[in-house]
Each structure stands twice: as structure tokens, then as C-alpha cells.
Amino acid sequence: MLKCREIVSNADQLLDQEMSRRQRLGMKMHLLMCRHCRRYVRQFSVLLRAVPFMHSEASDAEVSQVMEHIHKHDTRES
Amino acid sequence: MDSDQLRRLKAGDQALFAETVRLHHRALIALAVPIVGRSEAEEVVQNAWFKAHQAIDRFEGRANIRTWLSRIVINEAKMQLRQRGRELLFSDWQSGEDAGDALAERFNGSGSWQSPPVQWETDTPESLLMRQDLADCLEQLLDGMPINQRTVLELRDSSGFSFEDICNELTLSASNARVLLHRARSQLFQLVDHYEETGQC
User: Fold this and answer.
1) What's the complex ipTM?
2) Contact flag B139-A40 (C-beta cutoff 8 Å)
3) Do A39 and B26 touch (CB under 8 A)?
């Protein structure tokens, strides 16, 4: 039977869908019986899905700078 | 990005392109900084946006647009290094303090939870980041994270690269990449869990 520590170590691979069927089954058996690990995996999954949005949006000034750079080079190359 | 937005981008919709810049620019800067340094990251990403603008016709929409943009940034950053006669040496990226696995001390000697996770108030990615003070805590943590951990996290969880691609891009073994990613993610989890319990970073 897997220990809670192993569930946490292997949760990355579980959520990245990089586990064999046998490994997944071992995780599921433990998760059925352990509410702490169920909570960990559920919240960890929410966290990973939030990572792409952790960067704030660029400011108007940054966007303008990029667009000006593009159009300046476009003009040069056309 | 849906198919209608992709069609508009390819048709040259500049307002939509500008919105795409707004959404992804800072993530791309965060990706370039570890490779070329903060002072050159801006220039690299500017050049990458120019190339993306020129090549948008060739973007088929099969990959996430951030993944596609990230590849352009990495190529541009590597080209910049070559032009400066420098190399990408991932083994040198040991800045920042590596405290090991942030969750290691939460288990007892037999491997069971000693200090289990608390119940978080939020259960969606959107609501997690709605709290500005938590978002600020996360930003602070990311800024102080060892560069190699941060880069693997950015490539995998923000840019959507596969493990194989990460290992190829950074000349890194799969086991090493997994350890770095796990440590980065554990720090994020530890921070959010602590915040949920105490209301502080």
C-alpha cells in the first residue's frame, strides 16, 4: 500500500497522465481510503491549472511598444 | 483561442493581435529571463513577437498559442546567445535558494500526513487568483525561486511543453526535470496552503 508521502510525490505524474494503469490503480486505492490525500490531489490540480494565469496582463504601454516594434520592422521590410 | 479568433488573427486583425500580446507578453518575458538575463529578455521577446506576427499564417491551432509563442521565444533567445558567443548552460542555473521539497516536513516518520492540507476556500483556478494579496504572494515566490525550477515550471505548466521537449530544449535528464518540477510545484502548494490557513504569504 502506498504511503501518503508517495501519493504526494507521484501526484505530478498522475495529473500529467504519465502513469501506467497499474500505478494509477495503486494511487486510486490509497485515495479511496485517505481524505487528506484526496484533498491534496484535488487542490493540487486546481493549483496547476492556475499556473498559466499567474502572470499578470501586460500594461497598455507594453502592448503599444510591441505593436510599434512590429509595425516599424514591417515597414522596413516591405 | 477558438477557431474564429484564429481566423481573425490570420486575417490580420491587429486589435486581436494586441490583445494576444496583452495576455501572453509577461509569461514570455518570464521564460526569456533565465536564458538571456533580465536586461536582454525584453529585446528577445519583442523580436519574437515580430516573428510571430509574420508567421501567424503558419500557426495551425493544433497547439496552444502560448506553446507556439514560447517556442519562438526560446529559439530567439538561443539565437541571441549564439550571436553573443554565449552558451545555454542549464547546470549553471543554480541561483536562488533550493530548500528541497517544501512539503517534506509535513509527513511523519512512517510517511503519513503529520500536517495535512487545509480545506481551501477556492475550488477553481480563476477564483484562486482573484485574491490580489494571494496573487502577489505567488508572484513574490516565483521571483525568488531557483532559476532552474522556475524555468521547468514555466515551460511545463505555463507554456504547455511536453516533458520530452523540456529535456531536449534544456539538455536535461527526465528524472532531473521531474525533481525540479516537483519542487517548484510543492513550493506553490505550500504557499497557497499556508495562505489559506493564516491569510499570509
Assistant:
1) 0.88
2) no
3) no
pTM: 0.88
Q: What is the pLDDT of residues B84-143, one digit of tens each?
A: 887 765 655 555 556 678 999 999 999 999 999 999 998 899 899 888 899 999 989 998
CA distances from B137 to A31, A43, A63, B158 (A): 30, 18, 25, 18
Query: CA angle at residue B179 from B97 to B31, to 5 degrees?
Result: 65
Find the range with the poorest average confidence among A26-35, B8-17, B80-89, B122-131: B80-89
Nearest to B113 among A36, A42, A54 (CB): A36
B192: Cβ–Cβ under 8 A, 6 or more apart, which residues?
A43, A47, B120, B128, B134, B138
Residue B113 phi, psi (nearest 5): -60, 130
